[in-house]
Automatic annotation (TrEMBL):
Entry annotated with the keyword DNA-binding: no
Position of the signal peptide: none
InterPro entries according to UniProt: Kinase-like_dom_sf, Prot_kinase_dom, Protein_kinase_ATP_BS
The Protein kinase domain, residue ranges: 70-299
Keywords for the protein's UniProt record, in alphabetical order: ATP-binding, Nucleotide-binding
Identification of the protein by name: Protein kinase domain-containing protein
Keyword Nucleotide-binding part of the UniProt annotation: yes
Binding-site residues for ATP, renumbered to this chain: K97
């Protein structure tokens, strides 16, 4: 944490922490020279503790701090836009994302999905619940990231499609379906992170998965440098299928795909992924291509999901 100071002050205080030990640093200007001091938490004088949670009267202003009654337990994972922590608040465990993007979008979508489930008495469908507590968006349950060895289970795939159907029937396209956005809790799967979602038929700047994106999305990304990429319900379904297929890849194949995705090389990713799938799953390619061609006309969510689940059952070994 670096504390931002106002221009008229002649010193700044910052700190680094691993949540077990805290190291404070102070930089001062004396006679036009910088003076540096370091203090460890066990030796820190009481006066400096105020800088962990200070206000403009203490030291200019602080952009961000975690409330005192949020107890950080551990880091759950890191993404492109932030870090997710497990915290405890009033003896309840939550996941909390610290991100450079606002979480209100996810919160609002979760609220709409929960309302839809209640209105239609769909109590068998479990989704992540989100809470706005002291201005922070927290979520439950706190699960563990899905392991690729456990992914290909009929139960999990059915649960995934049911959750996705709620979001899509509300008009949303997730756009970021990949194994890192699936968590397990009590042997139930949960689809998380709707932050990259948009509406069906959208065309514009792309946010979302690369490795499991539909070929149509990757092609449009390559042609427009990511500026004019469309989004349709079918893209999410194709992402599920690609995710399942690629879970069978070797480490070397995963590394190659990850390398192209990390530099947004959509064209090379298309070629590499196609070669892998032709070697491992040649019979499924025609079915995927057919959905790709029709993606902009597939509006019936139930029919689309049934069609994709049939493809999965026929061509992918589920347990």
């Amino acid at each position: 944490m670096i504390i931002q100071i106002s221009p008229e002050r002649n010193y700044a205080v910052g700190c680094l922490t691993n949540y077990k030990e805290i190291v404070f640093g102070k930089t001062s200007i004396v006679n036009d020279k910088f003076i540096y001091e370091v203090f460890k938490s066990k030796n820190i004088i009481k006066e400096y503790w105020k800088f962990l949670h200070c206000n403009p009267s203490h030291l200019g202003h602080v952009k961000f701090s975690i409330p005192n009654n949020f107890y950080v337990k551990l880091s759950l994972g890191r993404g492109a836009n932030g870090i997710v922590y497990q915290i405890e608040h009033e003896n309840i465990q939550y996941a909390m994302k610290i991100s450079n993007k606002t979480s209100t979008k996810e919160y609002e979508i979760a609220e709409k999905m929960n309302n839809y489930i209640n209105e239609h008495s769909l109590s068998d469908i479990k989704i992540i619940h989100m809470f706005n507590i002291q201005g922070f968006i927290l979520s439950r349950p706190v699960g563990k990231l899905m392991n690729k060895n456990d992914l290909c289970k009929k139960k999990y795939i059915n649960q995934l499609f049911k959750q996705l159907s709620i979001g899509q029937k509300l008009g949303f396209v997730h756009r970021d379906i990949r194994i890192y956005n699936l968590i397990l809790f009590n042997d139930d799967i949960y689809l998380i992170d709707w932050d990259s979602s948009t509406y069906n038929g959208f065309q514009g700047n792309y946010e979302g998965t690369f490795t499991t994106a539909s070929t149509s999305v990757l092609t449009e990304y390559e042609l427009t440098h990511g500026k004019q990429v469309s989004a349709y319900y079918a893209d999410d379904c194709l992402s599920i299928i690609y995710m399942l297929l690629l879970s069978k890849c070797t480490k070397e194949e995963h590394a190659a795909l990850k390398q192209y995705a990390s530099v947004s090389s959509a064209g090379e990713l298309i070629v590499e992924r196609s070669e892998i799938l032709l070697q491992r799953h040649p019979t499924i390619i025609d079915h995927l291509n057919e959905i790709e061609k029709q993606r902009h006309n597939l509006f019936d969510i139930d029919d689309l999901h049934n069609r994709c689940q049939q493809i999965i059952q026929q061509h992918i070994d589920l347990i």
